[in-house]
Amino acid sequence: MQGEPEVAVLRLAHRPGRDDRMTTHVGLTARALGADRVVYPDNADQSRQTVADITGRFGGPFEVELTDSPAATVRHWDGVVVHLTMYGERVQDVETEIREARADAPLLVVVGSEKVPFDVYEHADYNVAVTNQPHSEVAGLAVFLDRLFGGRELDREWEDADRRVVPKETGKRVVPTDEPATDERAE
Ligand SMILES: C[S@@+](CC[C@H](N)C(=O)[O-])C[C@H]1O[C@@H](n2cnc3c(N)ncnc32)[C@H](O)[C@@H]1O
To answer: Which residues are recorded as binding S-adenosyl-L-methionine (predicted)?
Structure first.
């Protein structure tokens, strides 16, 4: 989030067809829940385009980029590396230490898709489990980011959006961002 060291999310691998929605959702979840950037493998350009399009419409700042070597991104990261894995340490046991470590260093959060090579476990400063049960990279990422930011990400302000959602008890309302918010209280 702005004014803090960067939090980037790396999608370690992408299987076209099989992973399309999950890879896109990793990026959308990273954006919505306070990360600054997502890095995709270079065969995930469709997901890159979708996340860039959502950022253009609903705001940022948020960067999305491709790499031809996700493994090198992990190896050369100048900061703290957290790898999300069901085999790792319990998030509730390490979250305070991770929050302290990233207070003055960029943080890379790594999520897998297919089998994760063992050197990622070795390169990571923290292998972190959101429960030690198998589930999804999107769910793991969401819970981890919320723990990392302590809920502050839910109040994030969005810049350069061309539309915004007006929260409503029932129904849907999306308004251009240049429309004054004067009638919100009356809804
Ligand atoms: C569907 S899993 C497949 C993992 C793969 N079979 C392996 O052996 O590494 C895909 C990704 O979801 C994430 N994931 C799944 N369960 C998790 C958990 N309990 N805690 C944290 N991350 C999890 C991990 O990042 C994992 O690489």
So the answer is: 84, 112-116
Q: Tell whether 143 is covered by a domain.
A: yes
Quick check: is 181 in a domain?
no
pTM here is: 0.95
Q: Ligand 1: which residue has its CA nearest to atom 10?
A: 113
Q: Rounded to 5 degrees, what are φ and ψ at 32?
A: -65, -30
**Model ipTM?**
0.93
- Of all residues in the chain, what percent are helix, strand and coil, respectively (each to 5)? 35, 25, 40
Res 73 pLDDT > 70: yes
Rounded Cα distance between 114 and 167, Å, is: 37
* Contact 13 CB / ligand 1 (< 6 Å): no
The answer as to whether 179 is a domain residue is no
Report whether pLDDT(187) > 50.
Answer: no
Ligand 1 centre to CA of 112 (Å) is 6
Residue 178 included in any domain:
no
Q: Are strands 7-11 and 107-111 parallel, antiparallel or unpaired?
A: parallel
Q: From ligand 1's centre to the CA of 159, what distance in Å?
A: 32
